[in-house]
Design goal:
The chain has 829 residues and is of the alpha+beta class. Among the domains are: 327 residues, Alpha-Beta Barrel (TIM Barrel); 75 residues, Golgi alpha-mannosidase II (Immunoglobulin-like), CATH 2.60.40; 127 residues, Golgi alpha-mannosidase II (Immunoglobulin-like, Sandwich). It contains 14 helices and 50 strands. The structure holds ligand MIG. The site of ligand MIG has 10 residues, from loops.
Length: 829
């Protein structure tokens, strides 16, 4: 077992010990093209390589020493993905074969199957095998330990791998994928909860990705063992990986995300603020929390019930004393604007009196050991059996269990925990536990990393079936590549420390770059108690995390927005109100993720990818197209150096216009807010503050428009905020083109979709206009109006919902704006 648990020692062992031999492919004896865009190479020692052109920029490589492949089955790939074989030509030459598409050339060597991928247009080598494919027989379990090693270029850096807690740039490190319940993890803990075997390489401004679609325990060595070698290997299964071309990092991420699955639009309320604790009970406490928000006028959309709502931790039951009338409580909360989300774990208590256990037992839905007995393990309910979620019939049954909770009782979201799977005794299931794996029976070695994904998949299906056409809301702690199709996720049991605030920033960015944009951390920290300042800074960062939820373990005191001093409560309220104002922007950014797979959080090196200075930076990130966020992550920090990428930026809060230089600039950052910048020329849609989504039936949007000398395009997406009409054009997707010069600004708007706004008025706010005039001329759709200057120097005018063109003219003030720096704060109130 040891070699499997610690692959960290594995390569060294393989090299050092005499008994363990690596095998290599021999010489190609046959080259064939079984289908369009598919190429096979067979060697004299029976190794088969299949290269498939999946679509423009995506190439799949599959190896087997058995001469033929396993059934082609993947949980990661989106079943709706439409491969389109790109045009290509094949050139055979003495040493090998070259397959050329418009963007990539793949050269396979006849001796040893080593592969080089180059950019067809520039000839640049993007990826080149070092040892290439090789393997070891797995004596203990059968099959092979499959390995691939590639040349690591001296200026090549690595990102991605989903759930890792270290700095963004992964060069020089080694990681594993083996989903684990890692309470109070640190920056060195590996593996964590989620398994995303996908990394992004960035080398001198050009990016590509590698997605190793293998669910066994996989390892990645990114120049750790040797600075010249990148390798990935697995304890079983096939060497089956995708090369994903950029050339830009965001292209790589989009392609990966499309391959593993685009997501659906979330219900708008799920993007509001959520409050959670382990646990709020009994009913009176839950109602008290709800009152706490409304009486203090702190916006909130969802309250959570952790495991203590259940009867003895039995899933799909209620504790009759703590929650005598759940349906009524949930209905009352809903009237007050709160949705209720409940937790569901995988373990089912072994209890002959418990109908859910009984049914699963009778139907044979629980996982068994290799010799046929049921696997039992302890979790919160005591000894449990565990459904085999990799069995389609079990998923179908599980989905049906939610009817009562959702359709009858009114719960609006389900939170799946402990699905790594976590078990108290041994951490997880023993390796010999059997799984159906959708008709490909296997042991837990192969199914472990997808167990949680298949659980939340079944849970989401339950929400869909019983949800009356609503958009589903499911949350998962464990994940494999592609889990974004089934759930949003959080980063597990973190700690109330400044270090963990920084980890939360890194993890959310990293998961977003691996297809999982709908991500958040336990705000304030799950374990221990944050100081007022830490809690505040965490909330201020999480305003920009798609999933925005405070959660804590409860044994360390209170962690509600008002649990600290009065001033902190006000500042936390300000931050949460800011989130509610930004909802149309967050929703628009989500739409881009839904439509194209573009990550909502965009790490600096992925946007400023031509600039090597950015490659080692981790803290600053972009939210969507136009917002740049600079988190504050140190206690008592009243200012910090930040990196402002090339371009032209305004400070969001006061329109100050820092000198745009792509190097460290000093910025003050008092407690009231964290620094946020907007790209000049950006149009950022806002809403008025609401206490919850839907409090105002048809909020009137405000478009904030920042000036620019030049052109910029902004998007703005609107729909019903729930339901399925968005799938058939029930939305309004505006593109607003801005063109500006000194004293002049022009907007042109076009939209798609047939959604009709319920509001009549749109408020336009022009920011960064350098003028002293009390009002200036604005022509909207050929109709002349005046935009009026406010005390903040911004000019405002109202228009109607269908405006399509705006022309603004002003006399530039002689002296440029006098604000000297990018100071963010307003004076203390
Ligand atoms: O063993 O349900 O990460 O969010 O509050 C702990 C209780 C089980 C772990 C989750 C945490 C949740 C807690 N759970």
């Amino acid at each position: 077992m040891a070699s499997e648990d610690f692959s960290g020692n594995y390569m060294e062992k393989a090299r050092g010990s005499k008994g363990v031999a690596d095998f290599f492919p021999g010489r190609v004896v046959e080259f064939r093209q079984p289908a369009d865009g598919v190429f096979e190479f067979l060697t004299d020692n029976g190794v088969l390589l299949r290269v498939s052109l999946v679509c423009d920029g995506v190439v799949r490589f599959r190896f087997t020493p058995e001469g033929r492949f396993e059934d082609d089955f993947s949980y990661a790939l989106d079943p709706n993905y439409q491969p389109v074989v790109p045009e290509h030509e094949v050139v055979e030459f003495g040493d090998g074969v070259a397959i050329k598409t418009g963007s990539l050339s793949i050269r396979v060597n006849r001796s040893g199957l080593k592969t080089t991928v180059t950019d067809t247009n520039t000839g640049t080598i993007l990826s080149q095998d070092d040892k290439g494919y090789h393997w070891q027989d797995n004596k203990q379990y059968g099959g092979e330990i499959v390995k691939m090693s590639k040349v690591c270029q001296s200026e090549e850096y690595f990102y991605g791998l989903g759930d890792k807690s270290c700095d963004l740039n992964l060069r020089g490190r080694r990681f594993q994928m083996w989903g684990s319940d890692t309470y109070a993890y640190t920056p060195d803990t590996d593996p964590l909860y989620k398994n995303i075997p996908f990394y992004i390489s960035l080398c001198k401004g050009t990016a590509h990705g590698i997605f190793f679609d293998n669910t066994f325990r996989t390892s990645f060595d990114l120049g750790a063992e040797s600075p010249d070698v990148t390798s990935f290997f697995s304890q079983g299964g096939e060497m089956n990986y995708y090369f994903i071309h950029g050339p830009e990092p965001l292209d790589v991420i989009r392609r990966y995300t499309r391959l593993t699955g685009l997501v659906n639009m979330p219900a708008l309320w799920t993007l509001g603020y959520h409050q959670c604790k382990w646990s709020y009970y009994p009913e009176a406490v839950v109602r008290g929390i709800a009152d706490g928000f409304r009486s203090r006028r702190i916006p909130c959309d969802a309250l959570y019930l952790d495991i203590d709502y259940m009867d003895g931790y039995r899933c799909f039951t209620w504790d009759a004393e703590r929650f005598p009338e759940p349906k009524k409580m949930i209905a009352d909360l809903e009237k007050d604007g709160f949705k209720t989300v409940a937790i569901i774990d995988p373990g089912l208590k072994i209890d002959p009196e418990y109908p859910v256990w009984q049914e699963a037992y009778e139907k044979g839905y629980f996982c068994r050991r290799q010799d046929g007995s049921l696997f039992k393990g302890s979790v919160w309910p005591g000894l449990c059996h565990f459904p085999d979620f990799t069995h389609p019939e079990v998923r179908d049954w599980w989905a049906g269990l939610f009817h009562n909770l959702i359709a009858e009782t009114g719960v609006r979201g389900i939170w799946n925990d402990m699905n790594e799977p976590a078990v108290f005794e041994e951490g997880t299931f023993p390796r010999d536990v059997r799984h159906n794996y959708d008709g490909h029976p296997c042991s837990h070695r192969k199914a472990h990393n997808v167990y949680g994904m298949q659980m939340v998949r079944a849970t989401q299906e339950g929400l869909r079936r019983s949800g009356n056409g609503r958009r589903t809301f499911s949350i998962t702690r464990s994940a494999y590549a592609g889990t974004q199709r089934f759930a949003c996720a959080w980063t597990g049991d973190n700690v109330a420390s400044w270090e963990h605030l920084s980890i939360a920033n890194l993890q959310c960015q990293r998961l977003a770059s691996c297809g999982m944009s709908f991500i958040g951390s336990d705000v304030g920290g799950f374990i221990e108690t944050p100081s007022a300042e830490l809690y505040l800074r965490w909330v201020q960062l999480a305003v920009f995390h798609p999933f925005f939820r405070t959660h804590s373990s409860g044994d360390h005191g209170e962690q509600e927005p008002w649990s600290f001093d009065k001033k902190t409560t006000e500042r936390v309220r300000d931050a949460i109100e800011f989130r509610y104002q930004l909802l149309p922007t967050i929703y628009t950014t989500f739409r881009q993720y839904v439509r194209d797979g573009t990550p909502m959080l965009r790490s600096l090196p992925f946007v400023d990818f031509k600039n090597p200075d950015a490659y080692w930076r981790s803290a600053e990130f972009f939210f969507g197209d136009h917002i740049y966020v600079v988190p504050i992550m140190e206690e008592g920090e009243e200012g910090r150096f930040l990196y402002l990428p090339k371009g032209d930026w305004f400070a969001y809060h006061d329109d100050s216009h820092p000198k745009a230089v792509a190097k460290d600039i000093w910025i003050e950052c008092p407690l009231d807010r964290i620094p946020v910048f907007v790209r000049s020329g950006a149009i950022i849609p806002h809403w008025p503050v609401q206490q919850y989504v839907g409090e105002i039936e048809h909020p009137e949007p405000e478009l904030r428009i920042w000036t620019k000398n030049g052109e910029e395009t902004s998007e703005w997406y609107e729909d019903d905020g729930d339901g399925q009409a968005w799938r058939d054009g029930g939305y309004r997707e505006s593109r607003i083109h801005l063109k500006g010069s000194a004293g002049h600004l022009n907007l042109h708007r076009e939209w798609q979709g047939h959604w009709e706004p319920g509001y009549e008025t749109i408020h336009l706010t022009f920011c960064g206009i350098n003028s002293e005039e009390p009002d200036i001329k604005v022509v909207i759709d050929d109709h002349e109006q005046r935009a009026v200057r406010g005390d903040d120097g911004r000019y405002r005018v109202n228009t109607h919902k269908n405006f399509y063109s705006v022309n603004l003219e002003w006399k530039p003030a002689k002296a440029p704006s006098t604000k000297p720096s990018a100071r963010q704060s307003q004076p203390e109130k």
